[in-house]
Every structure is written in C-alpha cells, then in structure tokens.
Specification:
By secondary structure, this protein is an alpha+beta fold. It has 2 domains: about 1-80 and about 205-288, 3-Layer(aba) Sandwich (D-Maltodextrin-Binding Protein, domain 2); about 80-205, Dipeptide-binding Protein, Domain 1 (Dipeptide-binding Protein, domain 1, Alpha-Beta Complex). The protein has 7 helices and 13 strands. Strand 7 (about 150-155) and strand 8 form a beta hairpin. The protein is elongated. Residues about 1-35 and about 280-288 have low confidence and may be disordered.
C-alpha cells in the first residue's frame, strides 16, 4: 500500500527523539539487555532522522489502522494528539492547557489550547473532543478502552467535561494522555473506521504528517508540520527503514542510519567507537 508519520514531546523541541526512538524500536516487553546505538557520524542533513527497524510494518498510523503493539501506537501519535501527555517529569500540556478533577460531579474539566488547527487547516474545538469519545463509545478504540467515560460535554469551543461513572485513578494516564482525538468533520460519517486508510484518515493535530508508507517494504516517512501549535520541530523529517539486525549494524557503522537496535554483545565494541548507547528494560506495559 502506498499513501501520501510512549508521543514524547517537549514544549520547545516538541519531540524528545532519543526516548521516543528507544521506545519505538524496542516495542513492548523488550529484553532487559536490549541496547540501541546512535551513530556518531556527521550527517549531511541533521534535520533528517533515519531509524532502522527489524520489523518494519506497524500498520497505517491512524487510530484504527496501527497494529496493537507499542511501535504502531507510537507512530500514530506523531500524527494524532491526546489531551495531555506524561513523561519522566510528570503531566504536560497536549491539546489541553489545563485540567481539573471535580469530585462532586465525578468529572474532569479540560481547558483546551487556543488556535490549534487540524492538518487540513480546520480549527480544533471542544466539539472534536466530545465527538471522539462518542465515536469511541460506538467504535471502541482497540488499543485502550474509553468505557470509564460516561459522557462528554462541550462548554463552548475551549472547555469540555468528561463525566465518569466512578472515580478512576489512572484516568490521566490511560485516557487523557493516551486516547487520540479525532477530527469530527472527517470521521463523523464514517461507519467502519477499520476500512479508513486513505490520506484523509491521517489528518490530525500532531507535529508530523505522513508523507509515505509502504506496507510491503515496511517503510515510513514523516514530515514536520509547519506552524505547529507547539512550535517548529527541529527534526524536519523522520524516516523508518526495515533492515535485519546485521544490516542495521552495518548501516549504522556507515552512517546510513542514525539509530538502530543492536545485539547486546556488540555494545562494548560500539561504545569504543564513540557511538551513543542506551539500554532499555522491558516493562510489560498492560497497554501492549
């Protein structure tokens, strides 16, 4: 198929590429001894990041097209935003700039950012948030359940309340920071989201747009969105290429790729050659 893209963001750079790629390449439940290497070679274009991936295809990066593993979800989040985000420092602003738990109502109230636009230029509003949760109630998001949300109500264009049946402790993690928000003007007439895989299915509010995807070759090419609401991404293009482990290592040494997962027994050798190495631990995430 050809169609013409763990979300790790900062407010200034918008994407923490090291942590993002480590999560993406390892996927869920990786071995504790898995290591990744970053090439030290000078690049002809430092605004392009090329990542080797031994698996390759992780599905179409929209909410109903990606495969139900960590890498598929992470690639989707380059295109689609959630209300908030969580990193090692805690909860950060996503599409919402503030939020509040209202215990007497068993509801979360979100104030949305002003001036956010979908990739096609249409304005993002509270109606899109309400629509998304209503749509997921009819067509459950296969990666994460939204069943805890009993009702979504828009309070103007920039305020929305999400009512719960009962208090839900991991709400910010598993719902607000994980559920991709859909554009109502595109998805509202769609009866079967699983068949929706064309260019319109890839219009989000995220920092990147998908330029190319090949299921056969397991390749992706994402480009930074100009004028994004969190600022311009410093990495203008992210490319994923499918390579075997041996090919990845050779390509890394030649500077043809910038990041790759490597066999543990190669770590010391690459470290001596000034490659940047990182070790990840398998977490067995319940959402994988």
């Amino acid at each position: 198929m050809q169609t013409t893209i763990g979300k790790i963001k900062s407010h200034l750079l918008y994407i923490c590429l090291a942590a993002f790629i480590l999560l993406l390449v390892s996927g869920c439940g990786s071995r504790a001894e898995d290591k990744k290497a970053v090439a030290p070679q000078a690049k002809s274009d430092p605004a392009i990041l090329t990542v080797a991936d031994t698996t390759g295809d992780w599905g179409v990066p929209n909410p109903f097209g990606h495969y139900l593993r960590g890498p598929g979800y992470i690639r989707m989040t380059l295109v689609f935003d959630s209300l908030v985000w969580k990193d090692e420092k805690g909860y950060g602003k996503g599409l919402a700039e503030s939020w509040q738990w209202l215990p007497e109502e068993k509801a979360w109230r979100f104030t949305l950012r002003n001036g956010v636009k979908w990739h096609d230029g249409k304005p993002f509003t509270a109606r899109d948030v309400v629509f998304s949760f209503e749509y997921y109630a009819r067509h459950p998001y296969p990666y994460i359940s939204t069943s805890q949300v009993a009702k979504a109500v828009a309070l103007g264009d920039r305020e929305v309340k999400l009512y719960l049946d009962e208090p839900y402790a991991p709400f910010l993690d598993y719902i607000a920071a994980s559920i991709p928000i859909l554009p109502e003007h595109i998805w509202k007439e769609l009866a079967d989201p699983r068949t929706f895989k064309g260019p319109a299915s890839l219009i989000g509010t995220g920092p990147y747009q998908l330029l190319e995807y090949s299921r056969e070759h397991g390749t992706y090419r994402f480009a930074a969105v100009p004028g994004h609401y969190l600022g311009e991404a410093k990495i203008k293009e992210i490319r994923f290429v499918k390579l075997t482990g041996e090919m990845s290592l050779a390509a890394l040494k030649r500077g043809e790729v910038d990041m790759a997962q490597i066999p543990p027994d190669m770590a010391d050798l690459l470290k001596k050659k000034d490659f940047a190495l990182s070790q990840t631990k398998g977490t067995g995430s319940p959402r994988c």
